[in-house]
User: Fold UDP-N-acetylmuramyl-tripeptide synthetase from Ureibacillus terrenus.
Amino acid sequence: MQLAELLKDWPCTVKGGSIRIEVQGIEDYAQHVKPGDLFVVRKGRKFDGYQYIDLALQNGAVGVVIEDETKLDQLKLPVPVIWVPNCLKFMSFAAAKIYRFPAEALQVIAITGTNGKTTVSHFIGQLLQALHKKVMVIGTNGVYINGKEVDLEYEHLTTLQPKHLHKILQYAVRNRVQYVALEASSMGLATHRLDYCDIDIGVFLNLAEDHIEDHGSYEKYKQSKQILAQLAKRIVLNGDDSFCRTVGLQSKKKKTYFGLGNRVHYQLQILAEGLQHTTCCLQSDKGQKVFTLPFVGEHQLQNVIAAITTVSELGFPVEQICEAAEQLYLPKGRLESIPNHLNVSIYIDYAHTEAALRAVLKTLKKTAKGDLIVVFSCGGDRDKHKRIKMGAVATKYADMIYLTTDSPRSEDPVFINSQIAAGFTSTQKYEMILDRREAIEKAILSAKEGDTILIAGKGHETDQIFKDKIIYFSDHECVQSILEKLKNKVEE
Ligand SMILES: CC(=O)N[C@H]1[C@@H](OP(=O)(O)OP(=O)(O)OC[C@H]2O[C@@H](n3ccc(=O)[nH]c3=O)[C@H](O)[C@@H]2O)O[C@H](CO)[C@@H](O)[C@@H]1O[C@H](C)C(=O)N[C@@H](C)C(=O)N[C@H](CCC(=O)O)C(=O)O
Ligand SMILES: Nc1ncnc2c1ncn2[C@@H]1O[C@H](COP(=O)(O)OP(=O)(O)OP(=O)(O)O)[C@@H](O)[C@H]1O
Assistant:
């Protein structure tokens, strides 16, 4: 696309060079610039992007986009320098335009909330697939088409950056995908990543304290989430959550409420709870249906009703959707059960917020036959306020706690754990074993038949980030190898 065409109708000032040049892509990371790209440069939190202009030009940038107007006359470059008022917004617009606004050819559902985005987006994907539709799911766990991970080049984030998002949406269109369920993180919304993505339905799940330090305050975190109500053509909201109710009240968009409680358009009533299953009744204007879900726990039922409501609002019959819901399964690292020969229930779960840890521990406490043992810590360099609260939650539900190491980043894991332990009661039994493998091993070895172990915080992740290194670590593989070792010992 010609630069002149790209800049049409966009507020900007251009200095130097010709605007009759072809632009192939848009890139803000100088090392990734390819010949024909526009390089977008910002002074960031960590780096001054202006220092990377030379590198971007060496890599073949055909233009440089800036947002600091004073630099317009200072920069003497062999390519056009384009000033725009807001680089992030421009990047979003330009990426959508370069890839020809692919979202317009798709039905896009964007899901936001503190907890459950990945789960609900995968549930929506599974339901649509069961209804014979081709669907892409984009989020923390990667990019999937009809349940299979797609091997594409992009930076793994919950909400992809526009330069990757629109390219992947174009790929979806070319591969005849009809629906896309994507996660909308607060950071993604705040940094305009979804501004030019045509969103048909915005789904609001819940709000709890998280990412406060990233945003500066809880108020700003809340405001970021609310952006989705402005971007989406219509909204589907959790009627049981006060933040979602407020979003609904403030929005003039068409809205549909779901929940387990009253005053909602789609209500999921719990009829009977087993150890692994819940029989429910869906009540809605679109129909009524009794069906059995392969999950227990209020939070999981909230996720299911969010997905059912969204798919019903896309025009599918509730009868068929509820039948398909009986086959739903959780995405990788979400209450993932590891079968074993010890007669111990072992689960890996991505709970890394107070609300998530509470939801999962509450659920396991109900189903646990013996003691409930939890292994966890908290990530470093973020949301320090949640540590004491997670400690209090763990103390409320767990019989034994092994404090270990998550991704401490620049912090000392002993200090992180001391902040968690500040939330424990004086009688709480706990032990700190910093090596994550050793902690998991100790939890498994100490468990009696019938006990339940929850390894929380890292779910599907496969790394641990330390001050000076990043190491490969998968909770799943770790548990498997410990179980293997124990089995071999028994056989010897
Ligand atoms: C670490 C971090 O938070 N970075 C975010 C931040 O970048 P920044 O402004 O601080 O930029 P910077 O790193 O100082 O660099 C300044 C400039 O120099 C450029 N640069 C920098 C270094 C280099 O080697 N080469 C180079 O070209 C950069 O591309 C940038 O243009 O501001 C940018 C725009 O506001 C964000 O896109 C960017 O998100 C990065 C991609 C990131 O990883 N963000 C995470 C926190 C994120 O978005 N997470 C959410 C999940 C969390 C949630 O649920 O809200 C997600 O959606 O994944
Ligand atoms: N509706 C819910 N309410 C509270 N906790 C939940 C809910 N759904 C899932 N969880 C908990 O949160 C964890 C993460 O779930 P999921 O990955 O679906 O959320 P997410 O919003 O995508 O998280 P992230 O933004 O960190 O990627 C789960 O492993 C579970 O412990």
